[in-house]
Amino acid sequence: MPHDIAGREFLKDNVRMQIDFSVTDQSRxxxxxxxxxLVPGEARVVDxxxxxRSLPRADLAxxxxxxxxxxxxxxxxxxxxxxxxLLWATQGIRGAPVAGHAxxxxxxxxxxxxxxxxxxxxxxxxxxxxxxRYLPLTxxxxxxxxxxxxxxKAARAALGQEFAGASAVTFIWTTIxxxxxxxxxxxxxxVIALDAGHVCQNLYLACEAIxxxxxxxxxxxxxxxxxxxxxxxxxxxxxxxxxxxxVSP
Length: 249
What we know:
The protein has one domain (about 5-40, about 45-245): NADH Oxidase (3-Layer(aba) Sandwich), CATH 3.40.109. The chain has eight helices and seven strands, in the order αβααβββααβααβαβ. The chain has helices at about 5-10, 60-65, 80-90, 150-155, 165, 180-185, 190-210, 220-230; strands at about 45, 115-120, 130-135, 140-145, 170-175, 210-215, 235-245. The chain has a seven-stranded antiparallel beta sheet with strand order 1-4-3-2-5-7-6, sandwiched between helices. A hairpin with a 4-residue loop joins β3 and β4.
């Protein structure tokens, strides 16, 4: 059976490609890029609750055993505490940033964390419908936009997968590749994809812990999804999507 040699090579160890790491911006003494996108001065931000204070302890083994992709959601709203927990599980920061790095609850190659988390919010108590961006350094949400017919646009951007607009909230992760390119050059792209997988798996398990479900989406219209969150499609673009909602017991 014919196969894509270049695609298979992408999955292999990039070090053997003899990448010259001496020419990366880190090696050239260029300061690291910011840990998160800048917050406009006029932005509307929402403070999130401390993510673990009021939520029950979860049985990790049970969460792993019950994990499955769920595409049908109840109409029940998520609480702001539950959303804060899901954001903490997927991009939460441990302690203060040091020297351009911030340890998080998910692994990332070289602690570079090239992902940004956007949310298409439909049914979250205390939040208006709209597109938000998570600010992990301050545990806040920034209101990006409030498009009309957001549910319809989210489903269309997900190539007609209606559950992307029927969720309580849909996580939309973008990547800013330069955060990783700064250190790893051409070796960045495989590890950025791996990092996205780490984040989404944590979302699956965190959802199971609070009676929610999710289903990862890798098939979407790149231009429409980028437009939905306001990414430029070059320096920042969508890499993964995951609708989340309450599930029936």
